[in-house]
Amino acid sequence: MASPQQRPSSLSERRGWRAAKYPHCEGQVQNLHPWRDAHLTLCDLEVSRAYHGQHQFHEGLYLCLVLEGRLTLSGVDGARVDLSAGQGGIFRPASTQSAPPTLKSYHPQGRLRCISLHLEGEASQSLQVRRGLANWDALPCARHSSPLSWTPGRWLHQQLDERVRVPDGEGVRGECETPATPACEGDMLEWQGIALQLLGAALKRRAGEAQEMPAFSAAAAPPASPLASPSRPHGACRHLEAVRQRLAAVPHGAHSLEELARLACMSPSGLRHKFRQAFGQSLGSYQRECRMRCAEQALRRGVSIQQVAHQVGYAHACNFATAYRRHFGVSPQVARAGFHRVE
Asked: Given CA atoms 17, 115, 81, 291 in this order, what sign does their dihedral have?
């Protein structure tokens, strides 16, 4: 992760962005309006102190894609999704609810780069967008006003990652003095296309997964496999899914590459390449993700840090504490105290 000194820190370095400084974080933010009642927000922030936020939604849809860092979204019923780099969240109020539901967010300490799209005023949206929302409402998951997760295609992820990190001076973006100049108009057209791709990918991927249950709930999920999912991401064959399920079910295990390759019916090098291509991260990274999620759930239940360390495969609590801090941005002691304070 790049240090704050390596990032552009002033408006002169990132045109179109504005400096943002809040009690818990600071950095750069850019707000765009690709079309009527559509708000596209880009952020590159350094969160100095973990904090919670919340927002009420009367209608429309909110979606985000985390490009770097971590973000947790949760609904009033306790269902939540924990997002890391390359993962997105989507939230749409259920039409059957009388009171506007609240979307809660948790921002851990560390750098956060993300892009979000908020649609409101559904009557003013285009026919294609309204049809997409109607198709979403026909899904079983639409019965719940709970955040859900989605994963972008590799090409879209790379495109957005590059756009949100582009500084001034690399290309012509942001060089216009007024929005009436052709370059600015072209830039906005490009952002309109990106916003539509973001919306289409979130609706399509989530619908394609056909996952009928609400988002992962800390109270209901079995601690032994915190990342296990009944759905299979696009591009993942059943052999790769078997490997992922093995790592999720036994995150503390000492899995050898040869063992996992036999399970996948592939060569070790083929498994490494295809697993990263299908899931967007390496085998080791995914196992660490599973371990940390399992550890987080154990800390929520009040298990001691020493016991949690052994449960997730660490011989020494200090090594576990280092890994936990590196992953979540806070020590397990601080996280455990915070969970009990909130609950």
From this structure: negative
